[in-house]
Specification:
This protein is an alpha+beta fold. It is built from nine helices and 25 strands. The chain folds into two domains: 180 residues, Jelly Rolls; 148 residues, Jelly Rolls (Sandwich), CATH 2.60.120.10.
């Protein structure tokens, strides 16, 4: 005999079975189903506007997301291309902080251009500054807490790292100056609110300046009343050796350089699919709060599905085109397209991949507020788990699981 309870239980079991079957539908796992593939009336997909086709066309994954995207999560894409520039005689800068990009709580980013002999005036920050040179040649100066100065010239692909509180300057060199991207190890940090030497002197009583520098008060009568920030120098940058002699100190030089050469990146992977190269505190010794990789993916290649257990990832896109899906509990999944000048942000331990969707090499940098780079590969984890357990979990033939890439592949072969 069928009681009301039995009828309800049977119906529920049938519904669960149907839901399970639908959930197993290849490429469309959710209920209610998502994605353009399930739309029965094509007019439901049209967008009558108003719209900006140029801007909308930059993010096809937003306009027509994969059916595997579900629910929603905080926006993890933004771009320097949309950030306003602050321009002064000598160069410009634009920035993206957590005020502009809410998800980016651990890192803020700055894109700066200095023309030939353009100077980012003497200054310091409350946060550490990491940077990669993306164009031209730049001269950096810095002095550490023990009075040991360094001056160095850097070029495209080189890095620098200035610990919090250490004063420094930047100058574009002939013939074309320089451009670079800065990452501060605090999402709230602003390039437009730094500690500038001109500001400090202008807001210090003249008699105090005279005592401090052992000079007459009149020596400071022409100091700037407003900061310079970026300015055009009328004096060509002297030869590096000349400046090294000028700044030499009895304390000597810093024990570890504050710059890192492109050739010194440590290869983590180097295959026909591309490369992953590392600069963190293990080889860039002064970089205690920022770890970074430079990733190159060949056309058709994939930065394998992975996550980072120790830090959020802030990534900066240099060349090529790519697609990224980020996965979170919920489930939540969202996909975005990336182009040169874009920034992505993936929270600690959230799964993601990077696919080269263009016909040229894709190059981007992964930046972490951490002393060391850490990563877990999905295929490596499953390949080193009990085969029967993985087979039952995923309903995949054990013989195929044995073929999963092992030993953290980093890049999937093209």
């Amino acid at each position: 005999m069928l009681s009301r309870r039995n009828i309800l239980a049977t119906a529920a079991a049938g519904a669960m079975s149907a839901a399970t079957a639908r959930a197993a539908s290849f490429g469309d796992p959710d209920q209610p189903a998502e994605g353009a593939v399930i739309v029965t009336k094509p007019k439901a997909l049209t967008d009558a506007g108003p719209q900006d086709p140029g801007l909308a066309g930059n993010e096809p994954a937003f306009q027509n997301p994969p059916a595997t995207d579900v629910n929603g999560m905080p926006q993890f894409w933004t771009s320097f291309n949309l950030a306003p520039k602050r321009i002064q005689n000598g160069g410009w800068a634009r920035q993206i902080t957590s005020d502009d990009f809410k998800i980016s709580s651990t890192i803020s980013g700055v894109n700066m251009r200095l023309g030939p002999n353009g100077v980012r005036e003497l200054h310091w920050h409350q946060q550490a500054e990491w940077a990669v040179v993306t164009y031209g040649n730049c001269r950096i100066t810095i002095i550490d807490q023990d009075g040991r100065p360094q001056v160095a010239d850097v070029t495209e692909g080189d890095l620098w790292y200035f610990p919090a509180g250490l004063p420094h300057s930047l100058q574009g060199l002939d013939p074309d100056g320089t451009e670079f991207v800065i990452a501060f190890d605090n999402g709230d940090s602003s390039e437009f609110n730094t500690l500038l030497v001109t500001d400090w002197l202008a807001h210090t009583p003249p008699e105090v300046l005279a005592k401090n520098f052992s000079l007459p008060i009149d020596a400071f009568k022409n100091i700037p009343l407003h900061n310079k920030w970026i300015y055009q120098s009328n004096v060509p940058a002297p030869p590096l050796a000349t400046v090294e002699a000028q700044i030499a100190a009895a304390a000597g030089k810093p024990p570890n350089p504050y710059i890192f050469r492109r050739a010194d990146f440590k290869p983590l992977a180097d295959t026909k699919s591309g490369s992953v190269r590392l600069a963190d505190s293990t080889n860039f010794l002064v970089s205690k709060t920022i770890a970074a990789t430079v990733v190159t993916i060949k056309p058709g290649g994939l930065r394998d599905m992975h996550w980072h257990p120790n830090a959020d990832e802030w990534n900066y896109w240099i060349k090529g085109e790519g697609r990224v899906t980020v996965f979170n509990t919920g489930p939540q999944a969202i996909t975005a397209n990336f182009h040169p000048g874009d920034i992505g942000y993936v929270k600690k331990a959230l799964g993601h991949y990077v696919e080269n969707t263009g016909d040229t090499d894709l190059v981007y940098m992964e930046v972490f507020r951490a002393d060391r780079f850490e990563e877990v590969s999905l295929s490596d984890w499953l390949a080193h788990s009990p085969i029967d357990m993985v087979a039952e979990t995923l309903n995949i033939d054990p013989g195929l699981i044995a073929q999963f890439p092992k030993n953290r592949p980093d890049l999937v072969p093209v």
